[in-house]
Amino acid sequence: MEWREVIEHPSLKDLPFKIETNEWGKIMMAPASDTHSLYQALITRWFNGHVTQGISSTECPIQTSRGTRVADVVWRSPLFIKKHGVRNVVLPESPEVVVEIESLSNTAAELEEKRFLYFETGAREFWLCRQNGNMRFFNPRGELNRSDLFGEFPDHIDIDVV
Questions:
Q1: CA within 20 to 30 Å of 118's CA: 15, 64, 68, 106, which one?
Q2: 67-76 vs 97-101, strand pairing mode
Q3: What CATH code is carried by the domain that includes residue 74?
């Protein structure tokens, strides 16, 4: 299935799952949790409170060489927005920062594949929020101590202090 068909299909509109497609157009689903959504909200709130240009968003579909992947959080620069606009069904390339939040249903291989796919499609950084709130930061060359783009981003997010 093409991504537009997936998002417009009446039977898929109200599923309580995150939907992605693989390289053969088959739908893949993962259950969501409240913890996952809180991490998304706090990461997005940090961007909104600390970054004056660009925009962050959640549940962002990105076309990759292996189907459409839906990033938990992304940050797009003004240059990215100028190039791609803001009314996309699916982004043709990754925004500068792509964040995945680890969930119980994720495997290490799946998260590694997503990191590879996001870098392949243009991401400058990939951030991984672990289930305990610890953050890991990567660029295409490997793991970083802190984000090169947003070095003041915390290395731990505490959802118990909301």
A1: 15
A2: antiparallel
A3: 3.90.1570.10
